[in-house]
Amino acid sequence: MASKDVLEELRETILNSMPPKAMVTAVEFEGPEIAVYSKNPQILIDNEDFVKELVHKIRKRIVLRSDPSIRIDPVEAESTIKTIVPEDAETTSIYFDHNLGEVIIEAKKPGLVIGRNGVTLKEIAGKVLWRPVVVRTPPLESKTVSQIRSILQNESELRKKILRKIGERIHRPPILKTDFIRVTALGGFREVGRTSILLQTIESNVLIDCGVNVGSTLQPFPRLDMPEFELDKLDAVIITHSHLDHSGFVPFLYKYGYEGPVYCTTATLNLMTLLQLDYIDVATREGNLLPYSPKDVKKMVLHTIPLEYGEVTDIAPDIRLTLHNAGHILGSSIVHLHIGDGLYNLAYTGDFKFGQSRLLEQANYNFPRLETLIIESTYGAPNDIMPAKKDTEASLVEVLKNTISRGGKCLIPVLAVGRAQEIILVIEEFMRRGVIPTAPVYIDGMISEATAIHTTHPEYLNAELREKIFHYGHNPFLAEYFVQVDNMNERTDIVSGDPCIILATSGMLQGGPSVEYFRLLADDPKNSLIFVSYQVEGTLGRRVQKGLKDIPMKNRDGKIEMVNVKMQVHTIEGFSGHSDRRQILSFIQKIRPKPERILTCHGENSKCANLASYIHRTYRIETRAPANLESIRLK
Ligand SMILES: [Zn+2]
């Protein structure tokens, strides 16, 4: 097999560039990385210079592993680790992956397991001769995170096989020289929802995003039925972020036999698994079409290769991928592809925010090289200008303060991922400072689970928030005001209790606990309903926002009752995780290097078209607003 030759060549290069005392016993593909097994403990501890040199020479990512014969017995290794790791690290579990030769240490304070400049980790590696990997124990318990970790733990042998197969495919010798590049819009162009882009060269096929349109029963899925798209030729799937309109259709690919990798950040993997499983639950409850099952989600988890921002990774013989922060939600990425060894560079923003939020840094705008940029246009129209963050927050605080002071309750329907956590941070700050009177803040629906995933990954949060959590030990997500609602019966007590704030899904009063809270709170004029996100036409949220007063609603027994809306209804704009028109244009002005061509997507028809023509006129850059099913040759 041709791919074996490449491995053989790599093995030779690696062996030749190392002294014999390195005692290399095996060289294997492990997804995009090359795993080098050694029998010499010293090499495993002091490997920095040698690995650096090797990486430079072969331009591949290297992971160094110990040969099974030298690893210390796990029982003994575990007690050794316990004596090395300080108690303050609060280690919660230690387990051994015999297939990869890794010991996974879960701790509440991973920094203390790593030690200054990695000194503690080195000591562990040197003494037990297993490769230590440290992961954070979620400060708030997360079912999703432990589910994913146990899948990877239990299926480690299968996972190793999958990685080897992926590695062989990535490192196959290219047949032809890459001389053309084209992208095909499979969904989410001149519309919002079901985003999917196919990128093709003579050698490779890559799918970027694979979403569903949750609001549409007519066209819910991307056009994978195009002749251009062949599942068995697909090299890789790249997911920018977890929202279902970007990730919701990925398990479907596995249902129909895809065996390749998904690349995304670890935060995206955790959040998209949560959202996909919920998507299945909702579809089952409402009797909708089920495109895949939890089994397919599990397959996706086993095939996902998490990447960090800035990590350059080979994903096909002629394509290198790097993810950059997109500032939209936790783990969201701008995708940068380097194609054909110097031939061409493409960046796709996904959903992005070019402005700092309470949660995240603003999107990255510096790239090593760039010819074409694909940019979202959700708020791309000239009048899509949002109020300043400070004013937006002040409006929210004002309503919360007034409502609680008059003895009322505030209901905020929110999206579970992103918006909810942003609002939590605002409430925490102003309640701590005494601006909002102290009251319980109830968190209902998937928000708690999504928040728990946020607390698992503080490394993705913005510098200010990280500083608070790490250096001052003040994690706002863990503040005492926040109360998780675990079952339906608690809701009755909450609505009949003292003044409070309730954050509940869904964001548009379409299903989820927010609907029930609304039914129970609507007829008291002391209460407030606060919309913090866009209300789509046709949803209950939209009708209430427009002033509908008498609404027939089903109660818990399934009987229809009339709900009379006497509570105050407020709409607060500006909490969006998307760039508004000004931020989109400022991003285009600042982006380096300046792209030759810009394609617009992810916006209503008129917004994609308007933004494309404005950019062309203003910045003299070639632009297009492709429609779904259009292919564009980039090179
Ligand atoms: Zn999004």
Per DSSP, the total helix count is: 21
β-strand number: 28
Work out the strand percent: 15-25%
Outline the biggest β-sheet. Answer: 7 strands, mixed
Q: What is the residue-mean pLDDT, rounded to a whole number?
A: 93
Bound molecules: zinc ion
Give me the CATH architecture of the largest domain, please. 4-Layer Sandwich
Would you tell me the structural class of the helices and strands? alpha/beta
Provide keyphrases for this structure:
alpha/beta, GMP Synthetase, Chain A, domain 3, 4 domains, single chain, 635 residues, binds zinc ion, seven-stranded mixed sheet, Metallo-beta-lactamase, Chain A, globular
Q: In short, what is this structure?
A:
The protein has 635 residues and is of the alpha/beta class. The strands form 6 sheets. Strands 12-11-10-9-8-7-28 form a 7-stranded mixed beta sheet. A 7-stranded mixed beta sheet has the order 13-14-15-16-17-26-27, with helices on one face.
Describe this structure in words.
With 635 residues, this protein is α/β, with parallel strands linked by helices. It folds into 4 domains: 2-69, GMP Synthetase, Chain A, domain 3 (2-Layer Sandwich), CATH 3.30.300.230; 72-137, K homology (KH) domain (GMP Synthetase, Chain A, domain 3); 180-383 and 578-630, Metallo-beta-lactamase, Chain A; 389-571, Rossmann fold. Helices cover 35% and strands 22% of the residues. The strands form 6 sheets. The chain has a 7-stranded mixed β-sheet. The protein has a 7-stranded mixed β-sheet with strand order 13-14-15-16-17-26-27, covered by helices on one side. Strand 1 and strand 2 form a beta hairpin. The longest helix is centred in the middle third of the chain and has 21 residues, at 266-286. It starts with a helix and ends with a strand. The chain binds zinc ion. Residues 241, 243, 328, 351 line the site of zinc ion.
